[in-house]
Design a protein that fits this description.
PyrdxlP-dep_Trfase (chains A, B); 44% helix; PyrdxlP-dep_Trfase_major (chains A, B); Aspartate Aminotransferase, domain 2; homodimer; transferase (chains A, B); alpha/beta; seven-stranded mixed β-sheet; pyridoxal phosphate (chains A, B); Aspartate Aminotransferase, domain 1
């Protein structure tokens, strides 16, 4: 039977990358593809103790239906941490759900939505279901260019979606002056900013830049996540929004899953209520900083001339640019044959993909395997550059 | 700042009922309004033991990102229980999420969607966000009337949404012959059936009727839930769909929240893997059957002539019809002043609401308070009938 499905569902197609990356689950594959945090950072013992407290305290309440807005003590924890009114805080089923809710509340078919170049693939997917018209905002190695936000480019835009901290996929952090310029421009243009910040706490040096939210709470929807600082398998995120939008997001949330499990919210709260994050996050920063240096050292040792990459100050990703003309998607198949995987950059672009880019994730791979995998990639890229060189001359 | 929001978000308005029912959280209010299962039925000790096993087994995996489709052993458990291929099973964040995903995949603005008269409010809300055109299917005291499904009524319909077992709000169970007739008609019309079944296991006598799914697996999307047989605070449901629709639902799910927490899925699986449901569900049936009889006895004692209600064979709800001309919404305010609450029937209708109807939930209220609350409602309704009588004569 061929059932009639929605227009938005018709455009959902199986991703070619996903098919290729399925093989990376084989243990012999050195995968720089996943966006997974390191399980070594999960505070297992503390969470187990927290579960015991939840069961000792009021298990019936933890297992019953609960308020759509979220578990009040957890909302208060977030409100205090971000210095906002608790009435602006909504707990979500991972920050991916916040993307879905924001899309539901803000996007009509054809609505212009501004995104960074490149941007987070999961956001592009979540928004796509609501059929916006993506508008790519120019960036350079430091991220988004605020001066590019003209009245013409932003006309009718429902919002600008930005990841100012250690962006997925590029690892870039937006400098302070650009944040200030961005917020000022947005305010002048009446442009809503959606700030996605799953990696903000993961600065290796511990230095944090002020959030867009802190600069203009009434002009920003802020999305946070416990996935990178606690554990992603709990699916706990939150969204901080101006009151009138918070109210709409709550209504959309109620229709979407009633509420995030009260059980996991209480566990998270019991885990972090007494200052765990202050002790725990520095250990993640240290591990990820070390892993990043391993990867950067390996890249320096093995990448041929013509390959460029950045040196992130935090987060989980390095962005690599091959010489123009090379296609990281075509090369992925060869890499996977040699048991190394990465994510090609093209799908992260809402328009005009740069096919010579790719993303490397480094936090879950051992130093030995980083070295080994980067050596293989270096060799592969060198061969590709050499093979392309005569063509380039001929052209 | 007045941000431009989506058309679907504009139609989201605060519910008048919700506002009235907020006061029912006061402990002195006898509430027949909630749709909450009884916390006395939550298998707390078994779940606590299950959590210990999850932590002892592989906590890192339980706390890591996981497959969108769900935790494989839990999917296999569902597949075996419903005798379907595991490839058709998707675990959802409560069955409310299944409604959202089905809407995402099936509904375009203006798509006809058939619903029972009345139908589950949460489904109407979830579907509404995708702007269908609801078509109400006639029902009687036994539920949906299959012969009403003509080619004309069902023309272009994306699906028919039905709750055959102890429907929310009416408590009705669709008889076997109607199920057979419904499935046959739907097949003939090429009409997809969406079968929502959160209460199917809650037959007081333990008797179960075959699901629509079992009668035509390729023509039915089946939604199940652990909320009423385990605990709703875990937010665990599932959807069984024909392969091509399963695939689309998974893609929509990935964009919506990546996956349901692996942590809660593993806990549920560890709780039920060794036959807990077979021991546990009969205790829920017994409790709910007893509670239903208390409520029916009280209704018989206290309701004035002209008030009708049904005697459900399972589930959590009784449906009450006041004499024509009375408005249960207007009466709710008076009831709440007397510290009793229920849910008016009107919002459960997609069109032409019958304002003289209301829903009573009885599983979380003690027998003494059921008696007391029903006595107050009986008195209130008697006064309303008496007050309306002269008008009726005058009219």
């Amino acid at each position: 039977m061929n059932w009639a499905i929605s227009r938005r569902a018709q455009q959902l197609t199986s991703s070619a990358i996903r098919e290729i990356l399925k093989v990376t689950e084989r243990p012999e594959v050195i995968s720089f593809a996943g966006g997974l945090p390191s399980p070594a950072t999960f505070p297992v013992a503390e969470m187990e103790a927290a579960v015991a407290r939840v069961f000792a305290d009021n298990p019936q309440a933890a297992l019953q239906y609960a308020a759509t807005e979220g578990y009040l003590p957890l909302r208060e924890f977030v409100a205090k941490r971000y210095q906002v009114d608790v009435e602006r805080v909504l707990i979500t089923t991972g920050s991916q759900q916040a993307l879905d809710l924001i899309a539901k509340v803000m996007i009509d078919p054809g609505s212009p939505v501004l995104v960074e170049t490149p941007s987070y693939l999961g956001a592009l997917q979540a928004f796509s279901l609501f059929e916006p018209e993506f508008v790519s905002v120019p960036t350079d190695d430091q991220g988004l260019l605020p001066e590019s936000l003209t009245a013409e480019l932003t006309a009718g835009a429902r919002f600008l979606y930005a990841l100012p901290n250690f962006q997925n996929p590029t690892g870039r952090r937006l400098p302070l002056e650009r944040r200030q310029a961005l917020v000022a421009r947005a305010r002048g243009l009446g442009l809503l900013l959606v700030e996605d910040d799953p990696y903000g706490e993961l600065s290796y040096a511990g230095s944090q830049l002020p959030s867009l939210l802190s600069m203009n709470p009434d002009g920003v929807i802020y999305m946070g996540s416990f996935s990178k600082i606690l554990a992603p398998g709990m699916r706990l995120g939150f969204v901080i929004a101006p009151p009138e939008l918070h109210f709409k997001l709550c209504q959309a949330k109620q229709a979407s899953d009633l509420h995030t499990p009260s059980f996991t919210q209480r566990i998270a709260y019991e885990t972090i209520r007494d200052g765990l994050l202050e002790r725990h996050i520095p250990t993640i920063r240290e591990l990820y900083g070390k892993q990043c240096r391993f990867m950067l050292d390996s890249l320096a040792r093995h990448m041929p001339e013509g390959v460029r990459w950045n040196a992130p100050e935090g987060g989980m990703f390095i962005w690599v640019e091959l010489p123009e003309g090379l296609d990281s998607m075509a090369l992925l198949e060869q890499a996977v044959q040699r048991n190394v995987a990465y994510v090609p950059g093209a799908p992260f672009y809402a328009s005009n993909p740069r096919r010579n880019t790719l993303r490397l994730a480094f936090v879950t791979v051992s130093p030995e395997r980083i070295e080994q995998g980067v050596a293989i990639l270096g060799e592969l890229f060198r061969q590709a550059i050499d093979a392309a060189a005569p063509q380039a001359k001929a052209a």
